[in-house]
Amino acid sequence: MTDHTHADTLRTPIVAVLGHVDHGKTSLLDTIRGSAVSEGEAGAITQHIGATDIPLDTISGMAGELIDPSDFDLPGLLFIDTPGHHSFSTLRARGGALADIAVLVVDVNDGFQPQTEEAIDILRRTGTPFVVAANKADTTPGWNPQDGEPIQKSMEAQSERAKSMLDENLYEIIGQLSDAGFSADLYWRVQDFQKNIGVVPLSALTGEGVPDLLTVLMGLSQRFMKEEMAIDVTGPGEGTVLEVKDERGFGATVDTVVYDGVIRNGDTIVVGGQNEPIVTEIRALLRPRPLAEIRTEKEFEKVGEIGAAAGVKIAAPDLDQAMAGAPVRVVRDRTADQVIEEVKAELAEIEVETADNGVVVKADTLGSLEAMANALREAEVPILRAEVGDIAPRDIAVAETANQDEHKAILGFNVDLLKNAESDLENADVKLFKNEVIYQLVEDYERYVEEKQRAQQETVLDKVVRPARFRILPDHTFRQNDPAVVGVEIISGTLQNNRKVGYFEGNEFERVGDLSGIQKQGDDVDEARAGERVSIAIDGPTVGRGIEEGDTLWTEVPEKHAKILEQELKEEITADEREALQGYLETRRKRDPFWGK
User: Fold this and answer.
1) Which residues are annotated as a binding site?
2) 415-453 pLDDT per residue, tens
3) DSSP-based three-state secondary structure for 154
4) How far lies 37's CA from each of 196, 336, 540, in Å?
5) Which of 177, 200, 346, 498 is 20 to 30 A from 19 in CA distance terms?
6) What residue numbers does the annotated binding site for GTP cover?
């Protein structure tokens, strides 16, 4: 083991930038990158894949009087660009988040948005320390920009009105953080960064407040993460896949962030794959050419080795089944089997519990798959299969095998529908939901299920015999028989045409005949409701024999229908129908207590 107290064994902390779609995540990264390049000579900034490394002296140049480089022995900061600039990325490293620290970007005028809430959930769950960048401070009405200055200096140059408007927006954000369970304050007021979240007002456009953000990130890392940054400089490299990409001349490659040890060209590595861990040998370690040489044809240069923390593209055979978010481990002085077990164990932490019934879930990374699974578990939606990757024909085939109609669904987070699956989807009885906000996806699906259930209940209700209790009115016999036509008043329930009717003799139901017509004010109708008076035609009985004026009759509800009404549709039927049903069931059950149960 190397001596960890030695300064050169401290790696760069990995910083993730999260936030809602248009709150300025990308432009903040671009500003930091741009100022870093103009600050250091272009040659001093090494180019990374999927990451930007900013050395300490460059940070101290950008932060000016805010930073004294001799206070720090960490080498700088490594900002990772989450793939596809998603709303966030829950990329993992050995059971925790890949990022050591995060920046949550919030538009100061816009406050918390769906993806902000989601990012906060992830930060809370992974326990990642974070800083809030309150971006777009320069859009405050009447703002007088002080390009690249520390924010407090910049605020001194503002009118009282602009200052108080900005303050109001900042306190709104501090309030929203508090609602989310985090106590926060403007960063210069925070005494203890382990208990409070620092909020840094800034502008990605003018660079104001960017020095402050770098200072806070540097200070937090130095104070609270120094131990975790101690690594074995020469140990076998470990990393996380950011993205799997096809590169001309190299086939499938994995963009990787290395967070421990060193990876060398020719090393045997184990990478988490969609079915099994992949064991392969590195053919090339690639990184972008330095800015100075950007004119050359090839965009990548080969390097012999790469140490943590860094972003690198690994070219090796058999990587097409690799997964975003999966571990990458160098085998070196162990057996491949040991490392395969480690990778399996790490992937097992992310195993999503599946059921025999449920929906198919696809997500872009293992981390987002995990977040999806958590959200669905809370919503009590079972999962039949959960995988990383775009939606392929076999996902549609699997979804179609679901037992229940509402489970014939695919929920895709940040993924595409593959070309060869489009026609399968059109011809299949499968519903596809796609969204870039997890809880939106879950909500869309839940809404769909509710509508489906409502529609099913409506069709069942249409077919079910509704209960009704009605009385033959005195002096309202219009015809004695064939069919008997009488005037009735409906006491409760809905009287439907073409139903069998009868009465209770004691607790026995006696059927008297079939309803063959209902007339209301001379017009034929299909049904009559409680409180209405109508004339009805009954095939079977004769008035005076079998039925009498003043008799109370009931619609005969078949036992199966009574059960559905009582157990499933009770909330869907009206209060008077419930009353008719209750009376009917009570009388039936006096004779047979289990009738309709």
Assistant:
1) 19-26, 81-85
2) 999 999 999 999 999 999 999 889 899 999 999 999 998
3) helix
4) 32, 41, 97
5) 346
6) 19-26, 81-85
